[in-house]
Amino acid sequence: MSITVAALRETAAAERRVAITPEAAKKWRGKGVRVLLEHGAGEAAGFPDASYVDVEFAAADAVLAQADLLACVLPPEDAVFGRLRDGSVVVGQLRPYGADARLAALSARKLTAFALELLPRTTRAQAMDVLSSQAAVSGYRAMLIAAEACPKFFPMLTTAAGTIRPSKVLVIGAGVAGLQAIATARRLGAQIEGYDVRPETREQVESLGAKFLDLGVSAAGSGGYARELSAEERAAQQQALADHLKPFDVVVSTAAVPGRPAPKILSQVMVEGMKPGALIVDMAAESGGNCALTRPGERVVHGGVTILGPLNLPAGAPLHASEMYARNVQHFVELLVHDDALQPDFDDELVAKSCLVRAGERIFQG
């Protein structure tokens, strides 16, 4: 197979993941694919060059000049696309919303680009679902951050100084990230509740040993996401949630929809009603936050309540996050290869709906 699959060192701030791991490279080579990496591409993720077997390394310009397909975790600088050969393919989390300059750069070189975050959330797409794999990492890390920042122990402890009661933790949003956060809090010994406006998530929350917080508002939607609440439903939800927040030591919020601002779930008044020493970890900080007081990447203290807005959580566990991501990429690229060549089948829903640019023609309109 005369295909060269390549990856560069990621350049986004604090990004430590890599799109091609040694495990993935071995599988590519087993299929006859040439793997070409920039020197040190996997080092920050825990994969030095020596850990890759039968892989070629070169400087960035040489990698780009030879790549048939460039895999990335996050979008490189737009200028990078101009150094690829006309007709090359780019696959990764390309953050297409509001990115006209990026789409123009892809079109200018007649590239074909696929944004993996646009993949339909179907059973067939599960093996290549980067949103789910990276959300699992995010949920795990968010709860570890909460456990470290919380002024209380998570588990119940019986000591010579008396019994320590467990922390009470609420997770808002029972998607992949929320469920992983719940599972992690449970392992750490906290008393855990989960809340979601989608009633079908109750069984999943309870299967992890958590109590489901039912506020009497249902917003079952499509595609794995909740529908937007009406003004009346939102007001009812806000009041009910405010009444239930007071006993919790930790709240982890996970509600986010790709391409849209995060829904504001925790108002300033609600935060002011929480007990002093309480902690909020807002996983939606990158898209504006679920809490009205969240500042992305910062720690805010308001009325004795601490609000954390961590960014790029998967990059904090880069080895396993990279392994999961690289498998997702590999499964997706298999859809693009036919007769030992890159020939995407645009009649395939997964290919068509994730395509941003096709041979220079802009497909995605945002």
UniProtKB/TrEMBL annotation:
Documented EC number(s): 7.1.1.1
GO biological process entries: NADPH regeneration
SMART domains to which the protein is assigned, alphabetical: AlaDh_PNT_C, AlaDh_PNT_N
Sorted UniProt keywords: NAD, NADP, Nucleotide-binding, Translocase
GO annotations of cellular component type: plasma membrane
Alanine dehydrogenase/pyridine nucleotide transhydrogenase NAD(H)-binding domain ranges (all copies): 147-309
Alanine dehydrogenase/pyridine nucleotide transhydrogenase N-terminal domain boundaries: 6-138
InterPro entries, alphabetized: AlaDH/PNT_N (IPR007886), AlaDH/PNT_NAD(H)-bd (IPR007698), NAD(P)-bd_dom_sf (IPR036291)
Any matching Pfam family: AlaDh_PNT_N
GO MF, one example: NADP binding
Transmembrane segments: none
Catalytic activity, reaction form: NAD(+) + NADPH + H(+)(in) = NADH + NADP(+) + H(+)(out)
Task of the protein: The transhydrogenation between NADH and NADP is coupled to respiration and ATP hydrolysis and functions as a proton pump across the membrane.
Annotated protein name in UniProt: proton-translocating NAD(P)(+) transhydrogenase
Biological source species: Rhodanobacter glycinis
